[in-house]
């Protein structure tokens, strides 16, 4: 059984937290992609559901409580993370308290709401630019996405 | 790094293959849930995308080629599989060739199209009954699902 475990990708979760025309982004404190913008997220622990993992990760990195809206997609291209083969489940969510202020913590060096109109002016960690592009399509179609889907 | 790998759930993929009011089900050849009905699916290999894994698993178990329509949901309740913590990405798909005949192979002892009206008359492996119930909601709403979402 131990050898089998090495042959599977490792699951993570990420969140698009939406507020009208803005989404919440963090500046990464650590490598890979240190100092670049990224969606909040992280590894799923054993015995933790993905829907619990994303709420916990967002709380740890931003201090915000979120509610989940939909699954945007599952991204699993083995080249999306330079460390190893990492699969991510991406949720669309919203803050529970619309007036709560995000505070950068844990793996986030800084945090900011960014208007989707300004996405082109930034570079993103991992495949998060593709994920944000897919989210912009999702706002119109409400369809789901994966790494090789255009 | 080796200890970290043991702390993550293991990813699998499953498919709802739809044909009008029917879906394709297999009878499991092996434990757990030997002889019970289940959705076709299996483990995601390292360096394989989830969208590739589900096409491969359906081909291996049914000989059918499928195209993917949407992601139905991601199910990761640690109690959904008696062996270990297994997370599954569930796709909705359709056969590429509408006249191709499914042939049971690999982990499938038998295979059959089942009308959704007859779902209540059967028992299912894992949490596949919940997944099929969610699919019936999806046919109306096109929303996405997870283990703790009703």
What can you tell me about this protein's structure?
Helices cover 21% and strands 35% of the residues of chain A. The model of chain A has no long low-confidence stretch (mean pLDDT 94). In chain A, β2 (22-28) and β3 (37-38) form a beta hairpin. The termini of chain A are far apart. In chain A, strands 1, 2, 3, 4, 5, 6, 7 and 8 form an eight-stranded mixed sheet that branches. The first copy, chain A, is built from three helices and eight strands. By secondary structure, chain A is of the alpha+beta class. Chain A binds chain B through residues 5-11, 43-52, 68, 70-71, 73-74, 76-78, 85, 87, 89, 142-149, and chain B through 5-11, 43-52, 68, 70-71, 73-74, 76-78, 85, 87, 89, 142-149.
Features:
about 150 residues, alpha+beta, Nucleoside Triphosphate Pyrophosphohydrolase, 3 helices, 8 strands, about 35% strand, ADP-ribose diphosphatase activity (chains A, B), hydrolase (chains A, B), NUDIX_hydrolase-like_dom_sf (chains A, B)
Task: Chart the SSEs and their pairings.
The structure is a homodimer of 150-residue chains.
Chain A (H helix, E strand, L loop, with lengths): L1 H4 L4 E10 L2 E7 L8 E2 L2 E3 L6 H13 L3 E10 L10 E10 L12 E8 L12 H14 L3 E2 L4
Parallel strand pairs in A: 1-6, 5-8
Antiparallel strand pairs in A: 1-2, 1-4, 2-3, 2-7, 5-6
């Amino acid at each position: 059984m131990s050898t089998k475990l090495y042959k599977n990708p490792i699951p993570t979760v990420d969140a698009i937290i939406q507020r009208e025309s803005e989404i919440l982004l963090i500046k990464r404190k650590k490598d890979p992609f240190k100092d670049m913008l990224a969606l909040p997220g992280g590894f799923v622990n054993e015995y933790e559901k993905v829907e619990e993992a994303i709420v916990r990760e967002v709380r740890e990195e931003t201090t915000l409580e979120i509610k989940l809206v939909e699954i945007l997609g599952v991204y699993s291209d083995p080249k999306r993370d330079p460390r190893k083969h990492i699969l991510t489940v991406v949720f669309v969510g919203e803050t529970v308290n619309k007036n709560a202020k995000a505070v950068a913590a844990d793996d986030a060096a800084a945090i900011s709401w960014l208007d989707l109109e300004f996405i082109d002016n930034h570079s993103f960690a991992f495949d998060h630019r593709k994920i944000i592009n897919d989210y912009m399509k999702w706002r119109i179609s409400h369809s789901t996405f994966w790494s090789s889907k255009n």
